[in-house]
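dumping this here so i dont lose it
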């Protein structure tokens, strides 16, 4: 079934708050908590990493609940709206925290954000899987999803500089706090309208299995060769942008001599490239296959990420060009892996007779959380161990800055190379997926 554009637009609308909240939680809030609000650097890394690990069991519970839900409002709508309401509370606690923030208070706010985000995200991506059984239409669905993600990221990045530019007109002093608070208000304003648009404009998809599933089913699913391999691809593909996002402000400020504002402005080039890259990688996936496009995108990202370290210090436009190039391939894995998981779901449904899409997408959300939990936790702890001080910027010692550069460079390249190698050997192409669907119809 070829979905209408207005349906795809309604489906993509929740990406604005769901993806919009993800960027500040990785790029803005950790250094803001460690610098402006006074949390210890290592403690900040531990908190932002731990809350994602603790939140992982909730993904499985949400996936189980989604697959078992059958209401007059549908299977996905109650979870999407319920998760959005919980996320609203977490946004208020996390983005409007006061200086002197205690670790416990920070932890509670972050946990509530991620709990609501998880419920809404699992419901949203599972819904996308159910909208079509066509191999290429799934790439189109998640291509719209990813384009909306890029729009969300660019929009939320523009909020802090815009708030600081307009703040003096309203008697507000430009500051890091003003930018973070402005992002919080924008996200809060977006949650309900976009989620309601999806609930009103997107039809229900394929029915799920009525069987309940839990931890044993999750481990059993991960032991299946295709599903386990895809989850490992997604994990390794999440690590490079995870390390890049966690360290970006520190890298460009301390190691390359830019201001914090310039470092964050560079992200605009990175995500703007994603708006160009998403349709290009979608086109390549249609011309070849999803997994080949994933392999090429991750491999090229490793090369271009390494180029950022070679850029001369202090040259903003060279750095901007490097971020623009690195952003082109970075956009592909998130939406193509989700489209590949839709094909895996069909294969597993054929093998088992059970459609457990909610479980599989819950596992994928959990794996992605691990991919972002590892970098922020590990990187901040290592930075603290090598003597890096978030408040000193370029005044850190040469050894501390070398440690920062090595962390920014090596783990992303190693992880990206592993993901590309695993994706290249994938077995479900268009012909294989069509055979699977023919068997399911019989």
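and the seq i came up w/
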């Amino acid at each position: 079934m070829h979905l209408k554009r207005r349906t795809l637009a309604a489906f993509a609308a929740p990406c604005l708050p769901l993806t919009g909240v993800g960027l500040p939680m990785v790029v803005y809030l950790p250094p803001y908590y460690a610098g402006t609000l006074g949390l210890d650097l290592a403690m900040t890394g531990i908190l932002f990493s731990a809350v994602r690990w603790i939140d992982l069991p909730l993904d499985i519970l949400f996936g189980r609940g989604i697959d078992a839900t059958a209401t007059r409002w549908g299977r996905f709508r109650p979870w999407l709206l319920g998760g959005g309401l919980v996320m609203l509370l977490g946004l208020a606690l996390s983005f409007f925290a006061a200086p002197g923030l205690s670790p416990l208070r920070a932890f509670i706010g972050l946990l509530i954000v991620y709990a609501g985000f998880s419920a809404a995200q699992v419901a949203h991506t599972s819904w996308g899987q159910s909208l079509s059984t066509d191999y290429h239409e799934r790439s189109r669905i998640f291509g719209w999803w990813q384009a909306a993600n890029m729009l969300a990221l660019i929009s939320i990045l523009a909020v802090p500089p815009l708030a600081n530019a307009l703040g003096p007109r309203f008697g507000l002093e430009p500051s890091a706090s003003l930018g973070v608070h402005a992002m919080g208000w924008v996200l809060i304003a977006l949650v309900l309208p976009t989620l309601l648009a999806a609930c009103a404009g997107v039809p229900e998809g394929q029915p799920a299995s009525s069987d309940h599933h839990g931890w044993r089913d999750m481990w059993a699913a991960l032991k299946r060769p295709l599903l386990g391999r895809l989850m490992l691809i997604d994990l390794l593909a999440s690590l490079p942008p995870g390390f890049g996002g966690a360290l970006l402000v520190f890298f460009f400020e301390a190691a390359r001599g830019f201001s914090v504002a310039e470092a964050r402005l560079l992200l605009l080039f990175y995500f703007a490239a994603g708006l160009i890259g998403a349709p290009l990688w979608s086109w390549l996936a249609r011309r070849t296959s999803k997994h080949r496009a994933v392999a090429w995108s991750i491999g090229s990202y490793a090369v271009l990420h390494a180029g950022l370290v070679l850029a001369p210090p202090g040259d903003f436009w060279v750095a901007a060009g490097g971020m623009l190039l690195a952003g082109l391939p970075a956009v592909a894995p998130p939406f193509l892996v989700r489209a590949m998981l839709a094909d895996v779901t069909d294969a597993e449904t054929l093998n088992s007779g059970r459609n457990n899409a909610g479980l599989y997408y819950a596992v994928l959300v959990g794996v992605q959380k691990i991919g972002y939990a590892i970098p922020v936790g590990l990187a901040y702890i290592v930075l603290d161990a090598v003597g890096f001080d978030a408040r000193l910027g370029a005044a850190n010692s040469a050894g501390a800055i070398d440690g920062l550069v090595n962390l920014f460079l090596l783990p992303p390249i190693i992880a990206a190379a592993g993901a590309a190698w695993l994706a290249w050997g994938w077995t479900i192409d268009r012909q294989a997926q069509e055979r699977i669907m023919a068997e399911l119809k019989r």
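The domain at 5-204+214-441 is CATH 1.20.1250.20 (Growth Hormone; Chain: A;).
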